[in-house]
Structures
1.
Amino acid sequence: MITRRDLLKLSGLGLGIALLPDGFMLVKASENPQIKPHLWASITKDNYLVLLINKSEMGQGVYTGLSMIVADELDFPWGRVIVKPAPAKDTYIDKKMGSQLTGGSTSIRNMYEFLRLLGASMKEMILESASREWKVPKEKLQAQMGYVSYTNKKASYGELWEKALKLPIPTKVRLKDPSEFLYIGKGVPRIDTEEKVEGKAIFGIDVRRKDMVYAVVERPPYFGAKPQSVDDSQARQMKDVLDVFTISSGVAVCAKTVEGALKGREKLRVAWTKSPLEGFDDERLSQYYLDMLKKKGVVARKDGDPILVLEKAKRKTSAVYLLPYLYHATMEPMACVVDVKEDRCIIYAPVQAQTWTLQTAKRITGLPEDKIEVYTTYLGGGFGRKSNVEFVKEALEISKRIKKPVKLIYTREDDVKSGWYRPMNATHLEGALDEKGRVIAIYHKIAVPAVFEWAGRPSQVDKAAVEGIENMFYEIPHVHVEFVKVDLPIPVWFWRSVGSTHNAFTLETFIDRLAKIGNRDPVELRLELLKNHERAQKVIQVAAEKAGWGKRPKHGDAMGLAYHYSFGSHVAQVAEVSLDKNSGQIRVHRVVCAIDIGPLVVHPNLLISQVESAVVMGLSAATKEKVSFSKNGPISLNFDTYPLLTMSEAPHVEVHIVRSEGPMGGVGEPALPPVAPAVANALLWGYGIQINNLPMTPESIRSLL
Amino acid sequence: MVELYLNGRRYKVNAEEDTPLLWVIREHIGFTGTKFGCGKGICGACTVLVEENPTRSCITPVGSVKGKRIITIEGIPSDHPVKRAWIELDVPQCGYCQPGQIVEAYALLKKKPKASKEEIVSVMSSHLCRCGTYGRILKAIQRAQKLMEVKA
Ligand code: FES
Ligand code: FES
């Protein structure tokens, strides 16, 4: 039975590759009516390889990482590769995810085999074509850098391509031995750099269509409120304003210009119904989460009898953590261009989720799938936020109503007010040591909203809520993990590294506290807890060694280490920190990171970029970020009240790649979770400070001194 | 009607004088390399040069720059050391903040080709990059300084 099937329509011939459970087979689409002819790759006459990539480029380098895999197997010059975003179609669904979606640090892992096969199959067909043309056995031909040659004959792939497509299709292809790789494992220049440096890369906000109008949406101050009455009389009189109307999320103002829409909105008078959240300011939210923590939840894991052991233990400690809502703060706020016509709908959007965009468009327009075109632009940052496509839904509603192409723009304030935060959470941890200082019990209980339920995948125990805890590698005889679902109507969503953002912080800082009361070295304690997990041990050892663990820190005054496994990868980080006791200001000088994503790193420099990026984002959140609320809603509406880390605060990041056997892990997210606990652990050992609340702002640090 | 002198060409734009320069450049004229990030002068994504000075176009009324020489990311030559260094080091990730960063770096090196690391960090810290490319931006500016020395 065919389990996976798709790919590769080449130059209109309807060629496809069927992926069988026991291997790959090339078939002609015409011979297999189940294969829809769609394009993955073609080679132009003048020898350019054009690839359609089904993953969104949001900075992680996926256009480069995926296309270099094809170019490598094909033996094609990197400088002649062109990438285009694949439209939203079943063909381009990532079969391992069941959706056309970029997330979970999975792109290379999920597409690697498929793309190698694609390149290898193309090359095989080109060789066959040359062999027939020149009447030379295939084995005698050389395929190299986009050319096939034999003695004095030479032809480009582009010249052979059309004929190649008319040949019978190979049923078996040989994949390269790693020793033959041209690019894989070495790297290539990023394919998107030049466009981005020239200001020519087109993001969602940059799309321009003929007769396009602009829209902004006035949103309720707090989630859940609806417009009760709208006075748009003044707004309508503003220059350029075309229309004002209510949509599902608020009140849309449409105008001929963006400034007209913004000015029109200023004149809008909307009375909102009472939000169910009214009164939930920072203080009340904190209390609410702490109260929820006292409720009975669902047990996600139970080994041994942790409660009894904790009761009897002599050496034990406990802590209650409270971590804030976080905002993604993609530098490009939500923006897209949508054109809904009677018989057709075109969407240009910076989305991580093409399938969901398509489904949303079907629902709003009532058009069949084949009348809806979804084109993914570059994403000015994603971090999970742009897998939520509510903003596209708004644009669809507006375009449908006004019957024109619409560019919807969120201001920064709109972007914060739209929600979809990393959830706030409260965690209760208890742990006990035996007389030898070994960790014998951990009790972990978290009160947190269910992110997966918000994304339409509810379950008893939300996967995000307990990830990194329920599946931790630490071998502790008595373990209790419990989840209390918080059901507030503040929208939450995936935020780079998701549940690990908070669970790594609580668990890893707690491990160090246990080490402290047991008079143990935290590195040595971790190695003991991970004695059967070589990969985990190795990254800890490498990070510790490279940072000079046990010696005086090279920079700063204190050192802390944290380890976390997420998205298939093991990461350990050591942070070198100093603290100005008068101001409470901490400074992170250097972060040494060891990362193991398995035996193969397709593009080492991209991995390094992602680690640098994750460390900066993780540190930014840990030291500066928190969405604050007044009784009437979120108040951290721009970068003055929701500050991000700047260059002067960014640490030097040092990356060490550790290779091991095992399945390939992800790269985009796993380096984020360890940084916050590594910094907090440095404060624990260096200054005796225990961090139970984030962010570690100067005020909060001062209050602990 | 406002007349602008942008990237070496004159444009007549039908916009009110109080319209932020950003929207005129991007949406009226169509140079979309200049980005909208915060609208409050905080993030630097909208930075352009007005008479050589890095300027936050989101808080600059278009009426205040009539007839002045404005340069955007598209107006900086491709072979300029700053752009070359940026490419050499593969600085951009998502790329959204980069035009603003590059324009700022270009202006800085024009004024102070030998700017110290501390000076670079201090100037560039007024720009936000959510992708955390700060380390590479710093390296690229230092690399551009080297490239400029060779040229000089
Ligand atoms: S958009 Fe102008 S400084 Fe942020
Ligand atoms: S490269 Fe993405 S915000 Fe700077």
2.
Amino acid sequence: MEAYDVAVIGGGILGCFAARNVRRWNLSVALLEAAEDVCTGITRANSAVVYAGYDNKPGSRKAEMTVRGNGNYESLCRELEVPFCRCGSLLVTYDGASLPKLQKKLSEGLKNGVPGLRLLTGAEAQAMEPMLRPGVAGALYAPSTGTVNPWLLGIAAFENAVENGATAYRNTAVTDIEKTDTGYLLKTNRGPIPCRTVINCAGLFADRVQELLFPRSTRLHWDGAEYLVLDKAAPKPRMVLFHQASSCGKGITAVPCVEGNLLISGVRKEIETPFATTPEGLRELHRAAKALLPELDLNQVIRSFAAVRPNPYREGGQSLHDFCIENPGPGFYSLIGIKTPGLTCAEELGRYVAQEAAAFLKAQPNPDFNPHRHAIPKSDDSKIVCQCQGITRSEILEAIRRGASTVDGIKRRLGSGMGPCQGSRCAFAIETILEGYRNGTL
Amino acid sequence: MEHYDLLVIGGGAAGIAAATAACGAGCASVAIVDRKPTLGGVLLQCTHRGFGNNLTGIEYARQLLKDLPPEVTLIFNTTVLSVEDTRVAHLSGGRRLSFSQLILATGCREIPMGALPIAGTRPKGVYTAGQMQEMMNLHGFVPEGPAVILGSGDLGLILANQLAQVGIPATLVEKQAHCGGLTRNRKCLGDSHVRLICGQTVTEVSGQKKLEACHLSGGDWIVCKTLLLAVGLRPERTLVSHLGNPIWLHLCGNCNTVHPMVEGVLSEAIQAGQTAWETMREHG
Ligand SMILES: Cc1cc2nc3c(=O)[nH]c(=O)nc-3n(C[C@H](O)[C@H](O)[C@H](O)COP(=O)(O)OP(=O)(O)OC[C@H]3O[C@@H](n4cnc5c(N)ncnc54)[C@H](O)[C@@H]3O)c2cc1C
Ligand SMILES: Cc1cc2nc3c(=O)[nH]c(=O)nc-3n(C[C@H](O)[C@H](O)[C@H](O)COP(=O)(O)OP(=O)(O)OC[C@H]3O[C@@H](n4cnc5c(N)ncnc54)[C@H](O)[C@@H]3O)c2cc1C
């Protein structure tokens, strides 16, 4: 096998954007994903917020990439035909003593170049978002905050990378790495793959993947978050709301998603079982949600789930706050512990590492790169399979043609099974269509 | 645009009976739209006896259909996507119908896992009871045992019966102090494969990919590969929730209130069919 110029390990949103951006250069690229599909890791379970950039230290890589990434989101989502909503956000506090914290975020945000950022009085915040519980002491308003569907965006970048010539290997886990004269040899469950450079985007396992060849440097400590999803029909706030943890309860984020559902989340510091919610956690989340938005109808919750967050620590215990991009060997780049705002910065990070690899390989720009990808078109097929979301058989077939191989893969591409019945009426029908497609009986 | 004096959405017991009653009263232009390829709705997945005069659901549907006048237009494999207050219905496939009277007979939907306060992972192997009934009775699916069934109402009991028949052990978990279903459905409780635990609920599930166990509020973990949720039904009427209460709209069957017995569905549907025709004659 001829060596790829670049091998990207991991097909989460970061790997997909890295592969897309490598193709902006005249470089061959392979994307290796352990799971049967792309975007099934962290990318599948996060808060879906496109951050404005006031949370990050001025001068940091995070601050710079977040503000720039946020500013480019409309054009990025237009290129990739993914819905994006710039709904704005409020960081609210009910505690007068916390106002200096908002002040600090305001001044740092302004330094970072966040547009339109300003402090509101409680009354102003409440007028903007009447669902808030009365008694707001103050709020930081960021009109540039937005929301996007993270896995849909990742899949769009993946499709775009493949259309531009990237080679995708799914069900392919990197189990060992060797250094060779010309680069690296990636050992996988499906045979060795030689390459000249490596971009390690292995998400929760990025530390372990790097340690397959290099000495231990940064380790990921996992913590988590829990989520509630409300039915589209439930009343919801217009903007993204952040409520910081205080004496009156857990901090939460409420996000009116592009699909129309409200997503409510809270962080959990200690996790016993990854990707598992706890009874106490869910109870606390319910309580905190009601405390912020008393009119919320929690009978309209249609799903709850847990996420895992990789927090990078230096050997020795020091926690890292900026994006950690390591270069442990020639032409080897690792994105380690890219948590919030990795979604906001996916294209920025992808561009950055692709550029590093291109500089190392002395590559030229690819004049044929096409940044456009087309969404799966709405069909007017009368056969609706997912009744809640109005998804047709033709659309499902198109998702399969584009690489979905499971009911969940179709769900991620089309939103099937994400309505109030949560797939109880369509999962079997979709499984049958998949089987028909596999057997060639369709 | 195609026009019908009466449009019936949903061709289950309620829709069939309502259309039959309206025709009987004199309404000549009636259409039933159903997303499925046949009439009968939930009856078609009921292989157990207990409908009318001890018939199975399938037999009962056949009997109902004998009375349905042949002039009723049947539109299958078509979902009604929305209804406008200008009395126009938008159908999948881009078709539109106008109507004078509308009968909503869309049945009910089940409460899925996500809507319940059950913590833990999100493994495969969790189904709603009606979903499993349809998979078993219409598609020959056999779930992996042992199973836990949450809710001991009629639906839970009917499933426990069916699982017992194929030798799959099932534990019914009931929040109330007593089993909820009709006496005739409780015969499964005598089966050695079926166990009933009252006064408890499932609080948590475990298993990363596939379901491994359910945790009960009493503290025990029950090892299982399948969890069936039979915890209640919600009327399906999102199609008309924005309409208020116009005189041309009539609801019947499980989309109006969830009925334990098909007789209740029928009497409500017959009433709706007749009222629709009377309203049509008075107001157009
Ligand atoms: C709880 C939470 C909330 C968040 N909310 C936001 C937000 O609101 N806004 C925002 O901007 N960012 C947010 N983020 C950050 C953002 O979600 C992440 O930065 C981003 O999704 C990380 O993507 P990834 O590609 O690194 O990881 P993943 O999606 O996990 O992808 C890594 C992939 O690598 C594969 N892999 C692992 N090991 C191997 C191997 N050995 N061989 C082959 N493949 C391998 C995995 O299977 C996986 O698919 C949040 C993160 C978390 C955890
Ligand atoms: C599992 C189960 C077991 C039962 N067992 C018994 C029993 O033993 N004895 C007894 O007397 N009663 C029993 N019942 C009660 C009763 O028989 C049923 O509730 C009754 O058949 C329901 O009729 P329905 O027409 O209201 O609803 P359904 O039969 O659910 O009909 C609704 C129809 O509407 C269609 N539809 C919905 N939305 C749309 C849309 N947007 N566009 C197009 N079509 C649409 C659906 O496809 C369906 O065909 C049982 C009920 C259930 C659920």
